[in-house]
Amino acid sequence: MKARTSHQTGTSCLAEMPAPLDPFDTPLLNVTRLTKQFSGRTVLDGIDFSVRAGELVAFLGANGSGKSTTLRCVMGLTEPDGGSIELSGSDLSGLRGQHLLRARRHAAMVFQKIHLVPRRSALENVCAGGLARLSAARSLSPAFFPKGLKEEAMACLDRVGMADRALDRVGRLSGGQQQRVALARALCQRAQVVLADEPVSALDPHAAEQVMSLLGDLAHRENLAVAAVLHQPDLALRHADRAIGLLKGKIIFNDAVGNLTSDMQDLLYSPDRGEAA
């Protein structure tokens, strides 16, 4: 994996990052027989998939098919009932405490509802991605953030085209701009895997295209493993490398987007499909 570099400052966004796995040998994210139930209803029914460095994978399916639950299980926001999750070579099921927290730092999640601090600047929000690397005292306030972290955050903002808005309060930015700041924060976290849960559902069509293009660019140019939950198959066709279709908690296809047919899409969204949860 090549270090991300600011076009303006030459500051790396991936300084001190562990050497990545060979993408041709081991996926950065590998999920095996993942299961989850809510109130006795099966939401995920033993699904298997992987995401390799350098690819953008789109998860497609109707509401309740298990797409968001899948990503939340990977991030530990929802506890799975069974199966295994390997992240950057670490089997999460065998880790506890600080070891588990350190392993999960290899992944960052971007949500439909953008979780930024509106009154803080874009730069300060992006710096938050690196707080886990700071001492407790240094992480208490932006006033204590070290120069190196601020330079790294600026490089990450530059990477997503937001360096010129670094000092603006996030609350004054558009939805698409805020989503790009959230992606910059993920870069500042030095994540190898980026999970995006409906990242464009609240954006206008132009902003949605920009964010999806950026996700694809981060996968292809930065060699990240990127997985995005989408409700728009047309966006997957234009930007993703591979599509995974979920129906009633099961994967019914996992193929290159060039092989995605209208019949396959109809199967996902047909009125009689039923819902997993």
List descriptors.
single chain, 277 residues, alpha/beta, Rossmann fold, 2 domains, six-stranded mixed β-sheet, four-stranded antiparallel β-sheet, 22% strand, globular, disordered N terminus, ATP binding, AAA+_ATPase
Would you give an account of this structure?
Helix 4 packs across helix 5 (175-188) and helix 5 (175-188) runs parallel beside helix 6 (205-222). It is globular and about 50 Å long. The strands form two sheets. A six-stranded mixed sheet has the order 6-7-8-3-9-10, sandwiched between helices. The chain is built from eight helices and ten strands. It folds into two domains: 27-106 and 191-270, 3-Layer(aba) Sandwich (Rossmann fold), CATH 3.40.50; 115-190, no CATH class. The longest helix is centred in the C-terminal third of the chain and has 18 residues, at 205-222. A hairpin with a 2-residue loop joins strand 1 and strand 2. By secondary structure, the chain is an alpha/beta fold. The termini are far apart.
Whole-number total of structural domains: 2
Given helix and strand content, the structural type is: alpha/beta
Number of DSSP strands? 10
| Strand line-up in the sheet with most strands | 6-7-8-3-9-10
Q: Give the helix tally.
A: 8
**CATH H-level homologous superfamily name of the largest domain:** P-loop containing nucleotide triphosphate hydrolases
Instruction: Indicate the low-confidence ranges by residue numbers.
Output: 1-12, 14-24
CATH architectural grouping of the largest domain: 3-Layer(aba) Sandwich
What Rg, in angstroms, do the CA atoms define? Answer: 18 Å
Q: What's the helical proportion of residues?
A: 25-40%
The chain-level mean pLDDT equals: 86
Order of helix and strand elements from N to C terminus: EEEHEEHEHHHEHEHEEH
* Amino- and carboxy-terminal Cα gap: 38 Å
The gross shape turns out to be globular
- Highest-level CATH class of the largest domain: Alpha Beta
